[in-house]
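In this supplementary section we document a worked example of the pipeline. Step one takes a protein sequence of length 241 as its only input; no multiple sequence alignment statistics are reported here. Step two produces a three-dimensional model, which step three serialises into structure tokens for compact storage. The input and output of this example are shown verbatim.
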Amino acid sequence: MLGYEVTKRWGGEGLPPDTITVSFTGSAGQSFGAFTPQGITLRLCGDANDYLGKGLSGGRLIAYPAPDSPFDAETQVIAGNVIGYGATGGEIFLRGVVGERFCVRNSGALAVAEGVGDHGCEYMTGGRVVILGPTGRNFAAGMSGGIAYVLDLVTIRLNGEMVDLDPLEEADVEFLRDVVARHEKETGSAVAAGLLASWDQSVARFSKIMPKDYKRVLSAASAAEREGRDVNEAVMSAAHG
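The serialised model returned by step three reads:
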């Protein structure tokens, strides 16, 4: 309802980030923060059920356990299955482990979690995902776009039919450092703090998962831009090639 009012008044562009911030404590039900547009930030101290961030449209969702929780957050479930389903933009920072099908059909959001269940990034078409913990089986099945970064990836759990494991470039290293630092700041993550404390060693533990077709299209666009050719034509040719 809040998102509806924002979009009704300010359209698809929404508001500047963090214009409206709402804090919650306790256990959220299904679809916490669904369809949240840009300008709204929802902070949850507690945990959530399935479909958190479904259709996220530019807003920011942050979830973390209570500071006095008697467990290690990175070993416990913070949210359920199908997080970020169909998200088109925005950010999700989750201090803890989530269930199956994390970011299925994500097309534009940034999402961070400290472990995911089976079928992570299934049918993902865009956006970026950072996993600071283990994955389940069949990771990246049907993934045709976007980029995923996984800490200490067990490669046997990766579905390599449509993706490659690529080396990190300088831009990836800068991106990861920024995201991990923001995750620590937003959630108080002990995992993120540990990684940042020895970053040069930590960054080498990340694997970059890149869809083959997406990589080909990006390469064609970059080449066209360097050579002064029409970028759209080059992208279309690569996409159908």
